[in-house]
Specification:
Blueprint: H1 5-22, E1 33-37, E2 40-44, E3 49-52, H2 53-59, E4 62-66, E5 71-75, E6 82-85, E7 91-96, H3 122-146, H4 161-164, E8 169-174, H5 182-199, E9 202-207, E10 217-219, E11 236-241, H6 245-250, H7 256-259, E12 264-269, H8 274-277, H9 295-306, E13 307-309, H10 311-325, E14 330-336, H11 354-366, E15 370-376, H12 379-389, E16 393-394, H13 411-424, E17 430-434, H14 438-447, E18 453-457, E19 460-463, H15 466-478
Parallel strand pairs: 8-9, 8-12, 11-12, 14-15, 14-17, 15-16, 17-18
Antiparallel strand pairs: 1-2, 3-6, 4-5, 4-7, 10-13, 18-19
């Protein structure tokens, strides 16, 4: 005989009173009951936090103990389509493995209905504890693999050399004269970088003569700035191989660390030694990315790894970019290296300028909508180009000086002009180079294509290619 309705109500009120005494914040849904039969759980009532079968599967194993140490609820194996959870006092979570974001209840007030039909044998408790331990283990493994250092975005190998090989350093050093001009320095930097890559030394650049280079160019993929604190109490020696072909040739079979055993090697040179260094079997594996690469490709790749323009240099080059990108005009560039008395070398004489002017005039005739840029170390050449071609000529503010041998007070102004001239040549649609001048050769390498490439040679301007320029460089400077 079923209890009367009044008796049922009294029992529920007593249950509420008992629970409210210890935890007034909990609320029992008196319309919710759960019946378990075999592997099927049926839930009645609507005022509960429900989770779908898919969410329950994602939860995996959920184990709860009450304060007395008795097993609360375990759901494993085949799960019902819907599991309803409602408040229960005196339950304490021991292990929760899976996704819990599906629950919309307040976690401070969320307990789980005990399943009185679940076995509470020591074997089951041991299984639950084992699963908790395994869950923690998997969590730690996941952290190590996917959050810890192993899964952090990796930097290029060259950029972390300082962490790998902190005891030995290789520094391209230009802290005093002579270092050569800007092209000489870039050639020396390229060789120094390759040697550092071959030997595993940490690579750095120190150019402070006649001004600190970091105000003009900034590091890009490779951290080449020097932390002087790391160099304290380390053996150091400076080596200069300026205009030294024998050193370039020695790279074929050199054991660099044997010949340069110091912790900090400060190196200065002015040639790209990749032709010989790539033949050294000792360093073949370390230099694999550069094997069988052209001189132009090697220089261009390394330069872009090392440098990016400062904000001011970008601003100075914006006029050239504006011509190409916004105005759509062709940019015809001629590099006329005259040479100064202090250089003790002649490239193009003033009497040989006529072929340059005729070449520019022909280009204007063929395509009237062109602009002209003359990169030169002679102010007289700049004035003559303006007299002949007027508004078509782009000029760069500053004095045209050799950065290693200038006696002017405005050192920064001369350096800005040198770098602006140099990198503007890379943007040219048509580029005419002075023979034997790396100041035009290296921008051609950065430009990276043969079309529109010419050279002044034997008193005339003729077509050339990157391969021809490379061969001429190797014959004159390296071989």
């Amino acid at each position: 005989m079923a209890p009367s309705k009044d008796k049922k109500s009294k029992n529920k009120e007593k249950l509420h009173e008992k629970r409210d005494e210890s935890d007034p914040g909990l609320d029992i849904d008196d319309t919710t009951t759960t019946t378990t039969t075999g592997e099927t759980t049926t839930t009645h009532g609507s005022n509960v936090g429900d989770i779908t079968r898919q969410d329950a599967i994602q939860l995996g194993i959920i184990a709860f103990y009450d304060h007395g140490g008795q097993l609360g609820t375990v759901h494993a194996g085949r799960l019902p389509d819907t599991i309803a959870y409602s408040s229960l006092k005196n339950t304490q979570p021991v292990c929760l493995s899976g996704i819990t974001s599906s629950f919309n209840q307040n976690p401070n007030k969320m307990d789980y209905r005990r399943d009185s039909q679940m076995p509470t044998s020591p074997r089951v408790r041991w299984m639950v504890r084992l699963m908790c331990v395994l869950s923690v283990g998997w969590l730690l493994l996941w952290y190590g693999l996917c959050i810890g250092p192993a899964c952090r975005p990796s930097m290029p190998e060259e950029a972390i050399q300082d962490d790998r090989t902190g005891r030995q350093y290789l520094v391209y050093d230009c802290s005093s004269a002579p270092c050569g001009g800007w092209a000489d320095r870039l050639e020396g930097i390229t060789s120094t970088y390759l040697i550092a890559l071959a030997t595993g030394r940490s690579f750095h650049i120190n150019i402070t003569y006649p001004i600190d280079i970091r105000g003009f160019l900034q590091q890009n993929e490779v951290n080449w700035e020097i932390d002087q604190l790391k160099l304290l109490n380390k053996s150091t020696r400076f080596y200069s191989y300026m205009d030294n072909r024998n050193f370039c040739r020695s790279l074929t079979n050199i054991d660099f660390d044997h010949n340069h055993p110091e912790d900090v090697v400060r190196l200065r040179m002015n040639a790209i030694g990749s032709y010989y260094l790539n033949q050294n079997t000792k360093y073949k594996q370390q230099l694999l990315p550069f094997l069988n690469k052209s001189l132009a490709s090697t220089f261009s790749t390394i330069h872009r790894r090392l440098f990016r323009f400062s904000e001011e240099l970008n601003t100075r080059l914006s006029a050239f970019m504006n011509i190409k990108l916004n105005q759509g005009k062709n940019l015809v560039c001629v590099q006329i290296r005259i040479g100064s008395a202090v250089e003790k070398r002649s490239y193009v004489s003033i009497s040989d300028l006529k072929p340059f002017w005729e070449f520019i005039k022909t280009r204007i005739t063929q395509d009237g909508d062109v602009r002209i840029f003359v990169a030169t170390d002679s102010e007289a050449v700049v004035k003559e180009s303006l007299r002949r071609f007027g508004w078509r000529v782009l000029t760069v503010e500053g004095h045209a000086d050799h950065i290693d041998k200038s006696d002017r007070k405005d050192v920064a102004g001369g350096f800005w002009k040198t770098l602006t001239d140099f990198y503007a040549l890379e943007m040219c649609d048509t580029l005419v180079l002075s023979i034997w001048s790396s100041f035009g050769r290296l921008p051609a390498f950065l430009r990276g294509r043969d079309d529109g490439l010419y050279v002044f040679q034997n008193h005339q301007i003729q077509r050339t290619s990157l391969k021809d320029i490379e061969d001429e460089y190797l014959q004159r400077v390296v071989l």
